[in-house]
TrEMBL record:
Keyword Lipid metabolism: no
SUPFAM superfamilies: ALDH-like
Name under which the protein is recorded: NADP-dependent aldehyde dehydrogenase
Protein's UniProt keywords contain Oxidoreductase: yes
Domain of life: Bacteria
Entry keyword set: Oxidoreductase
Amino acid sequence: MTSASIATPVEAPVDGASETSWDPRTGAPVGETPTTPAEQVEATLALAAAAAPLVASSAPSTRADWLRALADTLEQPSVAGELVALADRETALGLPRLQSELARTASQLRFYADVAEEGSYLRATIDSRTATSPDVARVQVPLGPVAVFGASNFPFGFGVLGNDTASALAAGCPVVAKAHPAHPQLSARLADVATTALEAAGAPEGTFALVAGFAAGTEMVTSRHTAAVAFTGSQRGGLALWRLANEREVVIPVFAEMGTVNPVVVTRAAVGRFDAIAAGAVASFTLGAGQFCTKPGLLLAPAGSEAAARVGAALEAAAPSAWHLTRQIAATATSGIGELTVAGATVVADVPAPDSGWGSRATVLRAPVSALTRGSRLLEECFGPVLVVAEYGDDDELERALGELQGALAASIMTSGADDPETPGLLTRLAGLVGRVTVDDWPTGVAWTWAQQHGGPWPATTAPGATSVGAAALDRFTRPVAFQSAPDHALPPALQAANPWRLPRRVDGRMVPASTVDAEAPGPNPTPGTGPSS
């Protein structure tokens, strides 16, 4: 459940001494938050770099304790109430939604604590010496300080303490996060809560910090102290950071999760339940004013289904209306509708925006399937409550349309049920385009689970093999190192014969669960991988 934030740090025109906080319901300013001077940004990153060895060498269970302590702090009634009220003032997302999101954030922190403690993300692997090969032991090691650029539309779940920060800390990396200009006051308060909670839990100084301002964002990426970047936002913002990182003398990875057009394919047999599909489409593409990176942006339905008219009727019946997070997002959504019509689409139905503040008209458009060609504006994201509907005539026409799509985060198949004969082929086809395929389920919900994949082929992300949600999110912030013929006492704890961190490990090709390790395992063994506990 992330967002392609239009108001990204790399897109701000200039820095001032402060960032203005706005009320989306009225468009009125509600306060100022100081930006971070360049010398302070560098000092903050240097402190994170100094903390990095301490954070990396801490046991996964210790880091898990830090994350759980932070989750507990967020759930304290006085803290939670203050944070939710502040978030609502800056985002207009509403108290019920924000209370739920804050609870989700605490659960995410505990989930990543569990992933760290379980330990399989380290992929500890030990090969004993043989007549033809030396002993070799391999493990994932933390990269170092991670610069986190959170999302606008999920100020808790994907903000400065969201999935990126939680997974980086779980993996053993300090985090320096950038305050989001859509909610700078909330970002600052979350940072205060986090640093206090982490310090109380025993985390080293420099484990987490916050900076603010456009220039600070640039410094975060270019500083020699930064080892990796995690970003959730627009393609323009993510690619700008990616270019900065690749222009460094020492290139660092940028894990950018960016906005895309997420396609929905309706099978022929599913047309019989299209009214339900239309209602589901409206609920999904207008959820949160369409400010989800997983929002379905293109619906492909069989010819003769009158899909656009039926989705348009469902939109008018629902009449959703919500505020956008920033003035720029509202303006971009409105101008995007105009660009889609220039590209060949026709407005079928729309409903009014809120009377005041920042909003745009929720809109359904119809486009000829022949207009869906590579490079067309019809196949680019319109971040807001906007859906393009096209009808395909036969398998060849559908295949041609799918072949024109960019990589995306998610795709959905709407079927007639479990026995729909088109489902297997479409699953295989869409898996080549996206990171997640849903069947009879809408994509605007991303659960934090062990199997989750929230990423996708370029340009959905800058790293198609990575995920920003789920247990595998930790993989982004580690790299593998092999140790050959090293004495046991010199190895990282994850590889020592006594297995002091009690991790699941692969030893001589066989998985050895942590639960099978003798709690009274002997001390270091001179040859890794040969002790009784291995």
